[in-house]
Write a structure and sequence with these properties.
- The chain is of the alpha/beta class.
- It has a domain at 2-176 and 211-225: 3-Layer(aba) Sandwich (Rossmann fold).
- It contains 20 helices and 19 strands.
- Strands 1, 2, 3, 4, 5, 6, 7, 8 and 9 form a nine-stranded mixed β-sheet that branches. It has a six-stranded parallel β-sheet with strand order 12-19-18-15-17-16, sandwiched between helices. A two-stranded antiparallel ribbon has the order 10-11.
- Helix 18 (450-457) links the parallel strand 18 (440-443) and strand 19 (469-476).
Length: 523
């Protein structure tokens, strides 16, 4: 069964309720209480429920089970990860719930030898954030279909992230005939979508209806909303480069276009052209974040030097306080330029405050909890430096942290004891986390797929939130980011067509060559 519930609508709690109301038979005594019984039954090793989750939410799931399940229920839970991984299948089968990660499952997948997770015939297997197996060629996807169970669940808020091929991995795990066979999936769903998108979308919706339980924030039951959440206000904040920043960006864009033309002449292979365009596009996107980003500056030393010379010209930037050409330019840690005298006066006027903030950045809300997302850890480094310079306490969550360090960062932020900002890597923490302590979400850069951004926003806008959530999507005007916004809207049609929200055809969400050419076109 596939469960498509948008983020923050209670997938975890509903799953726990399912486990308690329909436990494994070998876990139940005559009085219906849960107990650790002999796992062997008719020669098979019978287990409870296996839940596979992203690493970032492993401890959160464990904590939810502790908080939501009463002690007298007798539900025994084990986290199969790290040092506790050295268990046998027979030991795992004695637990009502076993939690593990996609990484562990992938590493232990057979062959060459059976591992504990694959020795047990589980009563139920649940894949949380099931889009983690969307690529049918990954270890995690291969491993998931090797698990032994007769009850299979996929939990996700974003079933289609790239192309309709994502669904094949789910159907294969669910053993949903005939679509679990690649040839049938291709002939019955994929090819009709390509030849006649409107008709193909109807076939796809019909196939999904057999296995899909869908809930959105607008879903109702008996005429009443299934959940009432505070408002969510999303604002696209269009910022503008200073004169010096604009010069740097335009120079980089001209250089990128020149490289593209040269590459097109030398390499006529479509694949190499595609990869080269992706690389140059990455550079432009990073330049929108920060023109002095090391990753951008390292592209070409001669280009970097010419930009620095241009930035030193007297008319390269305007003062953020008086609006005139900056005299004796001074720069704050967050890279905003001012007249030295204007900045000195501003600091003196705020001398009695605990810390001084850059005038351009001072629009942040006092005493609010803010989540700041970026795709690049280097950008988080730059923001971190600005926060430290302004004595603003923060936590950080990115892919470099281990499981315990991630849990500590989240707990520190949610405790709301002076840590006002959580810096988050978009890919490391856009899944599963509960961050309802925050009422502000800032997206520093745009991602191709709008569903990834939606997941990030719903870390705060979910069950348990009591305040309006304000979202700021920061973009730089007259850059590639304008075109990314337009491209995102096109890509929403993919999920809408498949899930019944629209009548358009399903198109690939992967960046096509046409997409890339559009993104490189003039604003």
């Amino acid at each position: 069964m596939g469960s498509l519930w948008l983020q923050g609508l209670g997938k975890t709690v509903t799953t726990i309720a399912l486990i308690l109301t329909a436990p494994a038979p070998n876990m139940v005594d005559a009085d219906r209480s849960l107990a650790a019984k002999d796992p062997w039954e008719k020669g098979a090793l019978r287990g409870g429920t296996l839940i596979v989750v992203p690493t970032s939410v492993l401890h959160q799931w464990h904590q939810e089970l502790k908080d939501k399940v009463a002690t007298f229920a007798g539900l025994r839970t084990h986290v199969y990860h790290g040092k506790s991984k050295a268990w046998t299948g027979q030991e795992l089968a004695r637990y009502g719930v076993v939690l593990t990660t996609y990484a562990i499952m992938g590493l232990e997948a057979p062959p060459p030898r059976p591992c504990p997770l694959f020795e047990v015939d589980w009563h139920r297997v649940i894949l949380d954030e099931a889009q983690s197996i969307k690529n049918a060629h990954t270890l995690a996807s291969h491993a998931s279909r090797c698990l032994q169970t007769s009850r299979r669940w996929c939990l996700t808020g974003t079933p289609i992230q790239n192309t309709v091929d994502d669904l094949y991995s789910y159907f294969r795990f669910l053993r949903y005939e005939p679509y679990s066979r690649q040839a049938a999936f291709k002939s019955m769903l994929k090819e009709p979508l390509q030849s006649n998108p409107k008709h193909g979308s109807k076939l796809l919706r019909a196939a999904l209806q057999g296995v899909l339980l869908r809930r959105t924030k607008g879903s109702t039951l008996n005429g009443e909303p299934i959940v009432e959440l505070p408002a969510r206000q999303v604002e696209v904040v269009r910022l503008h480069f200073s004169a010096g920043e604009r010069a740097a960006y335009d120079e980089l864009q001209r250089s990128s276009m020149s490289q593209l033309k040269e590459h097109a002449v030398i390499h006529r292979g479509a694949k190499t052209s595609y990869m080269n365009m992706l690389l140059l596009l990455l550079r432009l996107r990073q330049a929108c974040n920060h023109p002095w980003d090391d990753e951008v500056s390292a592209i070409d030393a001669s280009l970097r030097d010419s930009l620095l010379i241009r930035l030193e010209q007297p008319d390269s930037s305007l003062c953020g306080i008086c609006g005139d050409v900056a005299e004796e330019p001074a720069m704050t840690p967050c890279a905003h330029s001012f007249c030295r005298q204007c900045l000195t006066t501003q600091v003196q006027n705020h001398a009695g405050e605990q810390s001084y903030k850059c005038p351009t950045c001072s629009a942040t809300i006092k005493d609010a909890q803010v989540i700041v997302f970026s795709q690049w850890t280097r950008m988080l480094d730059l923001i971190q430096s600005a926060l430290q310079a302004n004595h603003i306490r923060f936590s950080r969550l990115d892919g470099t942290l281990g499981v315990s360090a991630r849990s500590h960062a989240v707990a520190q932020f949610n405790a709301n004891k002076g840590t006002n900002v959580l810096l988050v890597s978009l890919k490391a923490a856009s899944l599963g986390l509960n961050l309802t302590a925050a009422s502000y979400v800032v997206l520093m850069d745009l991602w191709w797929n709008p569903s990834v951004e939606e997941q990030a926003i719903d870390r705060a806008h979910r069950i348990g939130q009591t305040r309006t959530v304000r979202v700021m999507r920061l973009t730089i005007a007259d850059t590639v980011e304008d075109r990314i916004l337009a491209l995102q809207e096109k890509k929403r049609k993919l999920a809408e067509a498949a899930l019944g929200d629209g009548d358009g055809g399903v198109q690939a969400s992967r960046l096509t060559m046409e997409d890339l050419q559009y993104l490189f076109s003039a604003s």
